[in-house]
């Protein structure tokens, strides 16, 4: 059964919190100007995989960033990689509007955004073996032990991501919470479709801008950890 043929699925636990949708004047202006062409609602997507080549109007490697927040880092990453078809999925509408505004200011044209649940997107609208990379930078850590079940990086989710990566595709994660970093390492290391590119933690890439979360971690004496896993080729 392909992803597009699967029956609707429902999760009792999600990794995000719904927030308000009030936008600034600038965000609303960016939304009105760009959403129709550059944005989609995950829940409103037609059945089956998204035709990213048609949406971007070109064939290029597709990279998915899950949880782009307010877009301050994502916009810079998009602008720095014009050869990629860069897709950001985020549940927070003002955050996506801010990302669209930031990307426009940087002259980036290789961005498309999706509003909704990344699990729904990957399960129902991304073909297996088609993503060149997936980035998850500083997801909600849900630091209280009773909330750990809400963390995004769990075995079932990592398996889903791995199946959507093309052979040699990369899953790159970053977090400033030690306990979550250890969980990420354990979960990803246990996924047979993935192989750690490094012996443990990856070196912090120079190309990744410092986020406000990372800066806050520095101020609070927390160490950020990166992890890079590659999708192995299967016979």
Automatic annotation (TrEMBL):
Top-level lineage group: Bacteria
Record EC number: 2.1.1.33
UniProt-listed Gene3D superfamilies: Vaccinia Virus protein VP39
Record: residues binding substrate: 144, 176, 211-214
Name of this chain's protein: tRNA (guanine-N(7)-)-methyltransferase
Gene assigned in the entry: trmB
InterPro entries the record matches: SAM-dependent_MTases_sf, tRNA_(Gua-N-7)_MeTrfase_Trmb, tRNA_methyltr_TrmB_bact
Alphabetical list of HAMAP family matching this protein: tRNA_methyltr_TrmB
PANTHER family referenced in this protein's UniProt entry, alphabetically: 3-DEOXY-D-MANNO-OCTULOSONIC-ACID TRANSFERASE/TRNA GUANINE-N 7 - -METHYLTRANSFERASE (PTHR23417), PENTACOTRIPEPTIDE-REPEAT REGION OF PRORP DOMAIN-CONTAINING PROTEIN (PTHR23417:SF14)
Metabolic or biological pathway: tRNA modification; N(7)-methylguanine-tRNA biosynthesis
Catalytic activity: guanosine(46) in tRNA + S-adenosyl-L-methionine = N(7)-methylguanosine(46) in tRNA + S-adenosyl-L-homocysteine
The family this protein is said to belong to: Belongs to the class I-like SAM-binding methyltransferase superfamily. TrmB family.
Keyword vocabulary terms for this entry: Methyltransferase, S-adenosyl-L-methionine, Transferase, tRNA processing
């Amino acid at each position: 059964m392909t992803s597009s043929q699967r029956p609707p699925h429902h999760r009792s636990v999600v990794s995000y919190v719904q927030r308000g949708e009030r936008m600034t004047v600038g965000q609303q202006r960016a939304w009105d100007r760009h959403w129709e062409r550059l944005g989609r609602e995950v829940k409103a997507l037609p059945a089956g995989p998204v035709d990213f080549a048609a949406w971007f109007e070109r064939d290029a490697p597709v990279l998915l960033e899950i949880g782009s927040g307010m877009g301050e880092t994502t916009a810079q990453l998009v602008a720095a990689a014009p050869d990629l078809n860069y897709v950001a999925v985020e549940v927070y509408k003002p955050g996506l509007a801010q990302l669209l505004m930031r990307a426009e200011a940087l002259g980036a044209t290789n961005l498309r955004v999706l509003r909704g649940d990344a699990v729904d997107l990957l399960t129902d609208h991304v073909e297996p073996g088609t993503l060149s990379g997936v980035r998850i930078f500083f997801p909600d850590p849900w630091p209280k032990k009773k909330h750990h079940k809400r963390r995004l990086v769990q075995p079932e989710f990592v398996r889903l991501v791995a199946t959507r990566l093309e052979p040699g595709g990369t899953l790159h994660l970053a977090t400033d919470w030690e306990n979550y970093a250890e969980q990420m390492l354990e979960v990803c290391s246990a996924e047979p479709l993935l192989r750690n590119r490094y012996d443990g933690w990856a070196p912090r890439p120079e190309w990744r801008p410092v986020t406000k979360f990372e800066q806050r971690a520095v101020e609070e004496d927390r160490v950020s950890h990166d992890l890079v896993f590659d999708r192995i080729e299967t016979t």
